[in-house]
Design brief:
Length: 428
């Protein structure tokens, strides 16, 4: 499906603010990725909150996805902004004065890195930023962080001038068709019941000026009287009033198809995009949520890299790790069901003498980093058990004897041995 509309940030900005589905396409993924926060350098958390870092990062992702690119511009000390950011400018506490998000429409790529040996070869080198009041600033690419929408292998050929596509570009036509269909549906539902008024001689009366006026007045009265709880007064002999219902069969199916088309075009499941499960047999939306969480997790490493860069400017260590909590947590009922399943598994393993009760309990309570060591110890115990008998006997044999119990004396070699009754061999 081709998109006849040329790329224009103004078009997609208008869609974003006018169409709630378009806004959902832009905002859903950044919101899900940042919804539960993240863990970074706690000592710099106060500075990050004071500068509005989280809000700036969220806005950067939203504007970058909407316009096909945006810049995060940190307020560093004045200097030659056209030169690369040096290590001496990074990591000084209190040096960052603000974090600003600059939309694509106010940014122009001024120069490109044309050094084949440079790690940024073929990428923008200097951006020209236009302020709201018309001031021009030239900033080196290492002093800003860029967030793109849908990248293109050859943005120049596509007419993007080094930028990317908006995430609204692909579903543009699907969104337009959906908006047209829902608008037509609203009109259809408003006129689903059409009133029909039959009157004798209305055709002849319409040809006479005065009678035509009377007919118009009479029809106006009837139209005003329409509605629930209102009575329509008609002539018993010469008039007839009825309602004709418009058939609405097939409309829900058509809307479902359009919703599926919009969802497929933007890559966001219907459960997330429209807040409802997809239509069809056994469609619960659980698979949609799984796919959605995978998409969000794929985006979080990019966000972590951005946050590391920002925290490095604030003074964080170079090896700072940024981690995100799980995207989903079970409810109390679901958590109770999981614990019951684990308990049933432990009971089955202990009854089969695969694990001792204390081993099963230890595995459940131990931290994740200790699990390999515990499993290794259980394996060694199992090997000893196979070699010497039961599990508890193996554990008892490996344990040291109590201090108050003397060791058992060895048997005397010359002690008499009891007779052994041998079974007679059977005849062959």
């Amino acid at each position: 499906m081709s998109n006849p509309v040329p790329f224009d940030t103004r078009v997609y900005r208008a869609m974003y603010y006018a169409d709630p589905i378009a806004a959902r396409i832009v905002d859903a993924l950044p919101g899900a990725a940042m919804r539960r926060g993240y863990k970074a350098d706690d000592s710099l958390r106060e500075d990050a909150d004071r500068l509005g870092l989280d809000a700036a990062v969220l806005k950067l992702m939203q504007w970058g996805r909407r316009d096909g690119g945006a810049l995060l511009f940190p307020g560093l000390p004045a200097g030659d902004l056209k030169k690369p950011l040096t290590p001496g400018e990074v990591g000084r506490t209190g040096v960052v004065r603000f974090f600003r998000v600059v939309p694509r429409r106010r940014v122009t790529i001024l120069t490109w890195d044309e050094d084949p040996l440079s790690p940024r070869y073929g990428q923008p080198a200097v951006y020209q930023i236009l302020s709201r009041r018309g001031a021009v600033v030239h900033v080196h690419a290492t002093r800003v962080w860029r967030w793109d929408g849908v990248e293109d292998d050859d943005s120049d050929e596509a007419g993007l001038a080094g930028w990317s596509w908006s995430v609204l570009h692909r579903p543009y036509e699907a969104l337009r068709d959906f908006a047209t269909a829902t608008g037509s549906l609203s009109t259809l539902l408003a006129d689903a019941s059409q009133a029909v008024w039959k009157m004798q001689g209305v055709a002849k009366a319409a040809a006479v000026a005065k009678l035509n006026e009377l007919v118009a007045v009479r029809m106006g009265w009837a139209d005003q009287a329409r509605g629930a709880g209102k009575a329509v007064v008609i002539d018993k002999d010469g008039e007839d009033f009825a309602r004709v219902a418009t058939p609405l069969s097939g409309i829900p199916e058509s809307v479902d198809r359009l919703m599926a088309l919009v969802s497929a075009a933007c890559g966001i499941p219907q459960t997330i995009l429209f807040g409802r499960s997809p239509a069809g047999m056994n469609a619960t939306g659980e698979s949609d949520l799984t796919i959605w969480y995978d998409q969000v997790r794929e985006e979080q490493p990019k966000i972590a890299a951005l946050l590391r860069w920002c925290y490095r400017l604030l003074g964080a260590a170079e090896d700072l790790e940024v981690t995100f909590p799980p995207l989903w947590e079970p409810t109390e009922t679901e958590a109770a069901g999981v614990e019951k399943t684990k308990a049933d598994v432990d009971v089955a393993l202990t009854q089969a003498e695969i694990l001792l009760p204390e081993e099963a309990l230890l595995l459940r309570r131990a931290p994740a980093e200790d699990i390999p060591e515990i499993l290794e110890a259980i394996l060694e115990r199992a090997k000893a058990s196979l070699a010497g008998g039961g599990a508890r006997e193996a554990v008892a044999a490996a344990a040291p004897p109590p201090a108050d119990v003397p060791p058992e004396a060895p048997p005397l070699s010359d002690a008499p041995k009891p007779p052994v009754n041998e079974e007679p061999e059977e005849d062959a």
